[in-house]
Write a structure and sequence with these properties.
alpha/beta
Length: 189
């Protein structure tokens, strides 16, 4: 596959961090996993419905470090498990948009990225993915290319966020989304 990755040096070699990419296709999780794999093992948060497709797929997701999360309400089990991994210095991938935009611009971000960063006192790396919605045939034949650009670490401890945890989570996630959009503009130059 034609894969171009920039900014991998921004991924810390040790310690917890959230990787926050835009989300345009089903190929984004494996693309991020491959892009980070040389530096770190990654864990993902994904909608719980994926685990009910069939038993094989559910087992595969669990073997690929995917944490199921309920999209409605507050999923305390997923929050505890994600925080458990972050406290042990793991890399967690969370798509701020919460679902695929299918290449139609960017969706309004959900507060999860900000929440986990604030609650666990860790940084966030914004990531822009481009080209993953292309047909797989074009990617394999390298007539099209997927570009992944990792931004600089957003250090939550140096931010002056005010208000309730929910308000700060929204504000931080919006900052992350703006960084992702900015990375996208840099890629298109």
């Amino acid at each position: 596959m034609g894969l171009n990755v920039e900014g991998q040096e921004n991924i810390p070699k040790h310690g917890a961090v959230i990787i926050a990419p835009n989300h345009i296709s089903n190929w984004d999780p494996p693309i991020i996993a491959v892009s980070v794999a040389l530096r770190r093992e990654v864990f993902f948060i994904a909608k719980e419905e994926l685990f009910s497709v069939n038993n094989f797929y559910s087992l595969l997701l669990r073997k690929c470090n995917v944490i199921p999360i309920k999209r409605q309400g507050i999923d305390k089990k997923a929050i505890r498990l994600t925080s458990f991994y972050l406290k042990r210095g793991r890399v967690i991938v969370i798509f701020p948009e919460g679902k695929r935009s299918r290449g139609k611009g960017f969706l309004k971000p959900l507060p999860g990225v900000g929440y986990f960063a604030i609650k666990n006192g860790i940084g966030i790396i914004p990531v822009f993915i481009d080209g993953s919605s292309e047909r797989m045939r074009n990617l394999i034949l390298r007539t099209k290319r997927v570009n992944v650009r990792f931004g600089k670490l957003i250090d939550v401890s140096k931010m002056n966020l005010r208000g309730s945890l929910l308000k700060r989570s929204h504000e931080l996630t919006n900052i992350v989304m703006k960084e992702i959009i900015s990375l996208g503009k840099e890629c298109s130059r």
